[in-house]
User: What shape does this take?
Amino acid sequence: MTPLSITVSGEAETGQLGQQLALALAPGAVVGLDGPLGAGKTTLVRSVAAALGANPRQVASPTFVLMHQYEARTPIYHFDAYRVKSANEFWELGIQDYFESVGISIIEWASRVVECLPDDHILGRAELTGESSRLWLWSAAGPRSAEILRKLESSWQSRAI
Ligand code: ADP
Ligand code: MG
Assistant: This one.
């Protein structure tokens, strides 16, 4: 499957992307995010959380703790692998219990721990294409995640601009 590419032109549009993603997500989904500092990964998580009924003000990169949990329609587990030294270290923190739960897991800097992700997962990689424009490339491993991206693609195409 070729990646789904979505260009956003600013922070507000990253928020719209997160909202559409949230509506497409199924319980238990695992979403890895990559891209340089300032790409908008945390902004995206914040809008996913808000769309699922969490308080967006609680959302911040869990850089110094492994994970933040937000209460929403389904629990959201927000990980940040920036300071994780190895996939093995991440694994030993017990992340698989979260990945196997009905909550939604979102992992910033996922490429550092990609071996830890379950077989069925989504990866979103943001490239900086301008001061405030970002190109997101979304790919799915596994049928459940492929279905989520199909939904995202169609809702993104038909959204009111
Ligand atoms: P990351 O988690 O990828 O490091 P953040 O979401 O924490 O990124 O921060 C993104 C920063 O970049 C914010 O300060 C925001 O104002 C700025 N920014 C500029 N363009 C965008 C965009 N298209 N989407 C999100 N943030 C943007
Ligand atoms: Mg971040």
About this structure: The chain has a mean pLDDT of 95. The first strand starts at residue 4 and ends at 8. The pocket of adenosine-5'-diphosphate (ligand 1) is lined by residues 8, 10-11, 14, 35, 37-43, 61, 108, 132, 134 (CB under 6 Å).
